[in-house]
């Protein structure tokens, strides 16, 4: 498709990209590949979304490469597209983004993608993200960890339930603690019944209904054994 550098408004150029997707001839797919290097971020995002959702053979590789794009919007789109694939083999790439990307939106999208993909690196990365400085990332990390590693991260979840300034984070922390058998989780949930936010109090009460403390191991002293 000719005329990419002819001064068209961005909206028209985006429509042209979608037109390429709607007619995925080899020539148009080749054009989409070229547009992944476009200077305009909106065009790069649209081209990336188009070619990956077309399901070309190297779609995952293209999205992984886009995780290194200079524009956060492109990286966030790439993370979302990788999550849509639900491939555990992609967890390493997404875990690196969760730990290292400087943009909170990208880290948030990567947390969500990890929760969908799973894989060996999903749980550790999501648990680490419970300490992310951005509350939206922490929120997504709690949701993902609850799915991928339920019952883990209790110590940090207790802290978040008690102290996080964002009430939505406290709500999710309460929900996640319902999967923990740690007595400290039960204490934290009971304390949260006094939280100043109604939604947190409600979440804590609901979590306590399903909370089951782990049985305490009693050491075997041998007193009940037959001494004869």
Fold blueprint:
Elements: H1 10-22, H2 26-35, H3 41-53, H4 59-66, H5 72-85, H6 91-100, H7 104-117, H8 122-128, H9 135-148, H10 154-163, H11 167-177, H12 183-191, H13 198-210
Structural class: mainly alpha
Strand content: under 5%
Label the CATH architecture of one domain: Alpha Horseshoe
Tally of DSSP β-strands: 0
SSE string: HHHHHHHHHHHHH
Determine Rg (CA atoms, Å): 24 Å
Overall, the morphology is elongated
Helix percent band: 55-70%
CATH C-level name of one domain: Mainly Alpha
CATH superfamily of one domain: Leucine-rich Repeat Variant
Low-confidence stretches: none
| Biggest β-sheet strands, sense, barrel | none
Examine the coordinates and then state which fold CATH places here, giving the name of the CATH topology of one domain: Leucine-rich Repeat Variant
Through-space gap between termini: 93 Å
Kindly report the average pLDDT value.
93
Number of helices: 13
Structure description:
With 228 residues, the protein is mostly helical. It has a domain of 64 residues: Alpha Horseshoe (Leucine-rich Repeat Variant), CATH 1.25.10.10. α7 runs antiparallel to α8.
Task: Summarize, please.
The chain has 228 residues and is mainly α. It contains 13 helices and no strands. The model has no long low-confidence stretch (mean pLDDT 93).
Please supply descriptive tags for the structure shown above.
Leucine-rich Repeat Variant; mainly alpha; elongated
């Amino acid at each position: 498709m000719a005329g990419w550098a002819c001064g068209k408004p961005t909206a028209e150029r985006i429509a042209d990209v979608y037109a390429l997707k709607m007619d995925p001839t080899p020539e148009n797919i080749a054009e989409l590949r070229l547009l992944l290097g476009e200077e305009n971020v909106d065009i790069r995002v649209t081209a990336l979304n188009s070619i990956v959702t077309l399901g070309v053979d190297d779609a995952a590789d293209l999205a992984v490469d886009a995780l290194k794009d200079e524009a956060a919007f492109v990286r966030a789109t790439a993370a979302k597209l990788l999550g849509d694939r639900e491939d555990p083999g992609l967890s390493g790439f997404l875990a690196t983004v969760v730990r290292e990307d400087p943009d909170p939106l990208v880290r948030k999208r990567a947390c969500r993608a990890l929760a969908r993909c799973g894989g060996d690196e999903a749980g550790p990365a999501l648990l680490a993200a419970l300490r992310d400085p951005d509350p939206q990332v922490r929120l997504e990390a709690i949701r993902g960890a609850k799915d991928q590693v339920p019952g883990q991260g209790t110590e940090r979840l207790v802290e978040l339930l008690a102290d996080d300034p964002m009430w939505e984070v406290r709500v999710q922390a309460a929900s996640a603690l319902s999967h923990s058998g740690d007595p400290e989780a039960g204490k934290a949930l009971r304390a949260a019944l006094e939280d100043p936010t109604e939604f947190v109090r409600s979440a804590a009460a609901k979590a306590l209904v399903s909370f089951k403390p782990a049985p305490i191991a009693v050491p075997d002293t041998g007193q009940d054994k037959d001494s004869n």
